[in-house]
Amino acid sequence: MARWSRFAPDADRRLVKGLHDGDDDVMATLYDVYAERLYDYCMALLDDRRAAADVVHDTFIDAARRAPRLRDRGRLRPWLYAAARRRCMQRKLQLEPAEGDPLGSLDFLHREALFLALRHDLTGDDLAMTVGVSLRRTEARLSRAQQRVPDAKDFLLEAPAPVVPAALRHRVQHTGTDPELAGYRAEIAARGGALTPEGMPRQPDAPSHLARRWAFTSVGLFTTLAAAFVVLLVMNPHLPVPDIQWPGGKPHTSRSPRHHPRRSEQADVPSAGDQRPTTAPQSMNSRTPTPSSSPTPPRRKSGVLVVSPASIRFRNHDTMATLVLGARGGQVSWTAAASSPQVTLAQAGGTINDHGQVQIEVTLNRGLITLPGTATIMVSGGTGQVVPVSIAWDISVL
Prior knowledge:
Layout (H helix, E strand, L loop, with lengths): L8 H13 L2 H23 L2 H18 L9 H14 L18 H12 L4 H8 L3 H14 L3 H7 L9 H10 L4 H9 L18 H27 L29 E2 L37 E5 L2 E4 L5 E9 L3 E7 L4 E3 L3 E4 L4 E8 L4 E2 L2 E8 L5 E8 L2 E2 L1
Parallel strand pairs: 3-11
Antiparallel strand pairs: 1-3, 2-4, 4-8, 5-7, 5-10, 6-8, 9-12, 10-11
Helix pairs in contact: 2-3, 2-4, 2-9, 3-4, 3-9, 3-10, 4-6, 5-7, 5-8, 6-7
């Protein structure tokens, strides 16, 4: 490969000052120092001589207008590489490595990191600023690539550098200094995209600082909101949690049970309920009134209420379960009520014929944050029979 001279930050500062002052001779010096390097990099990304020459040309014209905006004028080298990279990223990249390339086992970003670090001596902050990501991520990417291809340095240093087209220097000098091409130079700079607050070209494949700041802010706001809800719910477990309308989504509401696919785990069907003191609402009379003009029919035999399962547990984010009520030995009139407002029933009462069944959908109304809890559903039969069903649920967030 070509024996490129070592970088000198002080020389870069003088070049940037000359560009800022509008010195026409600086453009030729800038080209002589960086043209071969940038052309080598663009050829590695594009594998197209004409496209690589166009990118190098536009990069120097862009630098003449916008490189002086750098906060640290000693960073001209990564600025040029970053500007060329952005323009290459907007074209068709050579993503597939050549046959026999030892770097072929790496993806594009890891190959690029090795190429810039080992062949172009861009490391540390310079490499991070070129590709537009944090120093930590850049170092991790480079370290993984070197571990997977330990002999990459020999291959990259021995590869010959492509020859820069002879006419490119005159083309850059002409475009950069001709007064009649001022509008063309402004158009080229505009195609270079936005600059970061440090004055570096922003990379299209790297998130902006505003996106990262918004992500951290969102996490902080959510954590604060979650902590506030936890405190309120600990102070009052039955505090109603309001529905929240998320951007682009629908509010959390208790939908009709028959439209919800989730059901909680259910236990085996227990035996007929025990006789216990009634604590639920009064049961309905099982007698059926008849018109006075008709003969009084024989009284129907009151049956036994059978409830299944004896307990329900809502796990993870479950919100729906089914309670099965049955009648044995006669008709049963029933009522049901839950001890917690977080548990609602699709039906509160009815009548079941002998050997008949009715399915009652049970809904757990979860909020943004739901703490673990318990409740009881009291199911009462027509003869004062009361069957308790225990309800329990796990903690859930969102």
